[in-house]
Amino acid sequence: MSSRNSSNMSTTRTLSGISEMEAAKLGLDLVSAARRNLGFLRTVAESRWLHRKPTLVEAIRRYSELWMPLMAHLTAESTLTTTPVVHPPIDIEWVWFCHTLNPVHYRQYCESRFSRLIGKPTIFDEENEEYALMRCRDFWVKRYPDEPFENEADSDVGVSEVAIDEELLEEVSKHRFLYSKFSEPYRSEIVYLIAARQRYKGFLFMVQRSIDLGSNLVPASDIMLMWLIHQSYPTVYAEDLKEMEGDFVKVLTVWDKVKEKEVEETKKLWERTFDQPYEKAGGEIAFKLDGGVSFKPPVYWEVSDTDINTKYKPLLPRFLLEVCVFVRLRDKMKAMQEDIRRDNLRLRIVRCHRELKLEKPMSDFSHSSWRKAWHLCCEFGTKGVMVELRRRGGYCFKGNSVQDTVTFYWNDLLRAPSLSLEKEDDEVKIVTSITPPVQAPYLMKCVPDRVTDDSGAMISDVILRMNQYHPQEGRWLSRTVLDHAGRECFVIRIRVGEGFWRRGGEAPSAVKWEDRIIEIREGSWSYVAGSIGRSPAKVVGTALPKEPAEQWKAAWHFSTGDELMIGGLPSSVSGLRFCLKNQAAESTVKLLKGRRMQYQVKKKGSVTNYEECQIYEEGEEEEEEDEEEGFLTLVRTTEDDPIGRATALLNWKLLVVELWPEEDAVFVLLLCICILRSVSEIKKEDIGGLLIRRRLGEEKFGTRDWGSVVLHPSLSSSFNSSPHIEPWYWNAKAVIKSGGSINITRQPAVTVGYSPEEGSDKLYKRGILA
């Protein structure tokens, strides 16, 4: 295998030449239509009212008896060639959308009732949609003065007596969870939708030329999304595909069960047509295979409307993208079996996680079709991936040598028309595809740091000299909060002692219980000499201890307006109880013990289906496993959503949090530190290493960064997976306690020496464990 610089390799675009093909001409702006309808599907998915049977029964009646006759009337009166610009209420829109996804039944329905196909207006702008809704209301009131414009169904009374189109009811019910199949936040990004439209046109081209195919075709998820959106505009869809109407009989939908043979046949046909792998990042086969369920993405993420943490300037957002790497041997290498057996490919990351080395033998790709080598989820800050072509040593030599390196940078892939690039040399072809980077949950961990005084300065001879040996007053335990990239973003301080200290001076004393406040300061340390410095001045959150009610062991009042109560038996951490209250909040907050909802872990390496996750209410009896101790899931509920959604996962033992952008980082950090502080006092034991009063050695950033790379579950069995390429909460102790992190099982005071100025262990035990 010859060695050459990767810059000499040729680069081609996925589906190059598709614009010159005789592809179907689309009479619809599919990109705008998809963005608008994804938002609509999300609204439908989050509406509990819309999925109640009385609402659906009434919606179908209104659609069939009122809306469609009105549209037929407006279409007949219109002198325009386009559909009248009117927009129905959401319940009718939902039934209409579902009905159009069955083009055959919808056409038969329209032609039997109105002798023509009824189209849908293409309204993608919010202002135009609002105008169209107002205009629709005027037409409605004029034609149906005794019928309310909005759906007013509110009970089950009389539902069984209403004559209803059962086939249409079944169609609507079937689509209830449609959004969950396209809920990843990158689906609404314009660059993703442009690439999906290009692949959809390629799929149409392939279908048109594959009439004699023996098996069904299986659309990838991005192609399926475009196909469904295209179908939802029936007149445009019928016109665009009038020459291909019969060709789609063998194309499966997202609700069909798929055979592995059908998937393989579709992949082979695509590869013969375009010489490209069929699947890609954000465009996998997401169907049920022979009754089984396909894998979910490497991490759980969903759309976040707001990021309330932008007010904290040092806290920078985290962005994730999916990556797929496909490999195929070049034709001339297939006969060189001896060389193939001695070669392998290694995947590495351009920046971050230098220990990541995922190897695949070249013999895995010794066939004519493209094979998925790696499927990852990476932080955008990793910059890109490198594929090393390596040759193992001969009989007398150990190890292996790098023959060539192929590098794909995220920025280059984002500029590619289909978010995909191909690079090749004399031996292999490699195609890498990505999804657009989108904001993901924040990751933060708290690490011990030096004791500080009342002003926030570290206790040190350096500070004393700078202050002309003026005694430092007060003693606070400190924790530095690091984000996913190892940046300092907050400093947490716990007040423990009071009074002046100088060498050989006054004796320390613990502060009163009601004065043991906790505060969070925004920013990083201002270092004046080495690791000695002052904490940031701006206080962004505080927690004040309160006298707990009779049934509780500890209580705290947060500056956010929340109140935390903690109870349980001193002898058992698993028996702890938590209660959160905030009278001014619009939502109710619950702390559920363990990893719940999207964070629920069935067993190592296997996460439960998110739709099947159960919520365990407070007071339910269940067996707590050791690995669940320390984990709490923060769930916010409202009147419209009593089940709620998990907005944060925290481990108060390890002082680690993952939180969604719409959840307040300071609130979650206060929860973490207050719970650890309280449980330590309840049990009279330093459970989480609170008595550590020095910054311990941290792993150098870039060695094995937590959360920077996550391997897809479907491929994890192919590698000797380490905890550092899995979601951090699968094995939190192994990830967070690596290197020099805290060992919470030992007594830190025995292994770490402290100066007299910092105070003795007795002071901190009185301030924490008393």
Automatic annotation (TrEMBL):
Residues 481-658 form the GRPD C-terminal domain. It comes from the Eukaryota. InterPro entries: GRDP-like, GRDP_C. PANTHER family: ENOLASE (DUF1399). This is Putative Glycine-rich domain-containing protein.
